[in-house]
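Figure-free illustration: sequence to structure, shown twice.
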Amino acid sequence: MEKGLTYSEAIEKAGNKLCRFPLKSVRGVPLMEPIAQKWDSVWAFCPDPSDLLIATYPKAGTTWTQEIVDLLLHNGDAEACKRAPTVVRIPFLEIYSPPPIPSGLDLLNAMSPPRVIKTHLPIQLVPEGFWENKCKVIYVARNAKDNMVSYYHFDRMNMTQPEPGPWEGYIHKFMKGELGWGSWYDHVKGYWEERERRNILYLFYEDMKENPRREVERIMRYLDLSLSDDVIERIVELTSFKVMKDNPMANYTFIPKPVFDHSISPFMRKGEVGDWVNYFSPTQLQLFDEDYERQMKTVNIPFRTKI
């Protein structure tokens, strides 16, 4: 980032270099073109063993988990966690944008370990250094139907992702894995199958909604932390959807309108389980359920579409 520029100002300055970037295949996974062009640098990234990776399919509770982790590491200090926007506090490993917007690697290289790092990469594209150095990894999975609805609205308002088109066509793109970061099915299965061998804490969005305190405590134990009950309660409150939606350091309102158009759909839209029932027609639901059964038949991941 250019000296003296905030992240928002860097985006403003990049101006007309930003557009709806096409997807390009990297080892069979569609990624936004700027990421694909810089892939060798991403793949070469070598984390410190003390670094923590938060991995998700897009719109599966990433920002929520980032905020929980940051608050846990800062003993529930809300002001400390407003020191910078989410993207600066917890850099997005693979993201590349036109200068002067800093890439994820630029931000990471300017930080000293231990760092918390975000990725949407499927497990086979995570740089090998994370496994070689036995970094801790938190993975969050969200049921396919709600995840798809949330991603659809995000693609509508994010002016750097491909045009989503109409909902009825988006369902087919999702089922075929023709969206940024590829197949939801391959993504959730890949981390699930490796979770024990690679010491991955595998969380479910629905569990986090149902009992946030329990899941905050799970994350705390995984990070080898021990916080008092009142601090944990504070973290649960500070990471509630209502509080985060009003937190300018976490709600992505710091991204200017030419990139994230919140008038189309807010970044933090509903944060609910079961909103999918408002979108699927009976025909779409039957088609999707049959395809889901086929794609998930080799695993038994306990997803829930309502709580």
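We now fold a second protein in the same way, so the two outputs can be compared directly.
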Amino acid sequence: MAVDSLEQLEAIYETRVSDAARLKETDRIIPPYARLIEASPFAVLATAGPEGLDCSPRGDRPGFLRVADDRTLVLPDRKGNNRLDSLRNILNDPRVALLFLIPGSGTTLRVNGRAIISDDPALLDSLAIDGKPPKTALVISVETVYFQCARAILRAGLWQGDSQVDPKSLPSAGEILEAASNARINGESFDRDWAERAPKTLW
């Protein structure tokens, strides 16, 4: 049976929210939250637009997502697949959400806000790595920030060694592309070229 009303939903769950769950949400980046962002090498960016939803992984050296001030974050847009799904969405709907992960930590951090796409040369040059600036950067005006408890990561055993999956047991990118393209892409060639190309094109 589908749950299709707020009344049904609240009847299933305990609706009282604890003080800790309420008070952890802020409208700015307080110093402890800044420390989490600066320690994170990986975030997931969620956007929405006329073409649909997008949830995009973003990763780089820890602190890659810059805390400009307590209400502003700057996210460089590094090399990717050039689909531009997230950026297209932001042009139509500036709302964004970020989920930060920190390897070894059960704490995740969530940020909601609104983004603009900047191609300001001075800003991009300040974000360069190995002399290579990003093509654009997202300047995110923060609206809400809060940390998520560790239950999901504890249940998943995400950072535990015995939870790690051998990549060789999974389909490779080439295998997936060959299947999805009805063999228009040769999987073996793709995997071989990617292994050589990826380390040279990170930035």
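Summary for the second example: Helices lie at 6-12, 19-23, 31-39, 85-92, 121-126, 151-156, 173-180, 187-197.
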